[in-house]
């Protein structure tokens, strides 16, 4: 079984998805790759993998979203950093030191669109291809970053990070997608896994069939 996912999906995919599915189907093997949104779309569209998990991908004629759910992009702050109580526009955070993913990731695409529409620029102190590096940047007190809540769920639940909602509609309406290739029936095992992931992964919470 071949899958490709964005970095932020990895912990949930393994802990909430593949662990239970593998226990129920001990004869199956998995090949898991990861990368930015552009890489996930390419891997699914080219038939390199059966299933993909991507954050806010653009429409693609060769792909179907079997499940999707709204997952707003949030500003993540160190727990001790003062933060406003209400959602703020991205433009209000331009003076904060921040860490950003490289271009090619869905999050960076979203931020770039809001920057272009508003005529401002974020100036990252750190650029990386790793969601883990973004988390560690904030946990170290170096500044802020931007992730959907599921990518830092444990840190948020345990109070190590603080989530600040963003007021920009494009960021507030972002979504997570579970993808497969259009026009080609999935192998039986892949179809079972797709249904399992749509039911059990926290970003989707049972939204199969959207």
TrEMBL record:
Superkingdom of source: Bacteria
Question: One GO cellular component from the entry?
Answer: cytosol
**Ranges for domain LysR substrate-binding:** 2-201
BP-aspect Gene Ontology terms: regulation of DNA-templated transcription
Q: Which Gene3D superfamilies match?
A: 3.40.190.290
Coiled coil located at which positions? none
- What is the protein name for this chain? LysR substrate binding domain protein
Species of the source: Pseudoroseomonas cervicalis ATCC 49957
Its taxonomic path starts at: Bacteria, Pseudomonadati, Pseudomonadota, Alphaproteobacteria, Acetobacterales
């Amino acid at each position: 079984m071949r899958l490709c996912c964005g970095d932020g999906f990895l912990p949930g995919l393994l802990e909430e998805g593949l662990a239970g599915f593998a226990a129920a189907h001990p004869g199956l093997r998995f090949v898991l790759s990861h990368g930015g949104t552009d890489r996930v779309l390419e891997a699914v569209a080219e038939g390199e993998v059966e299933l993909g998990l991507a954050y806010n991908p653009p429409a693609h004629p060769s792909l179907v979203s079997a499940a999707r759910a709204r997952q707003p992009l949030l500003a993540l702050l160190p727990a001790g950093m003062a933060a406003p109580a209400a959602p703020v526009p991205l433009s209000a955070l331009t003076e904060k030191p921040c860490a950003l993913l490289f271009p090619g990731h869905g999050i960076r695409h979203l931020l770039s669109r809001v920057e272009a529409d508003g005529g401002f620029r974020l100036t990252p102190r750190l650029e990386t291809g790793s969601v883990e590096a973004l988390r560690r940047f904030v946990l170290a007190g170096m500044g802020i970053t931007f992730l959907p809540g599921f990518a830092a769920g444990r840190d948020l639940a345990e109070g190590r990070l603080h989530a600040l909602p963003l007021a920009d509609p494009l960021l507030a309406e972002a979504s997570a997608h579970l993808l497969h290739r259009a026009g080609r029936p999935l192998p039986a095992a892949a179809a079972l896994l797709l249904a399992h992931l749509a039911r059990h992964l926290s970003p989707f919470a049972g939204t199969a069939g959207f």
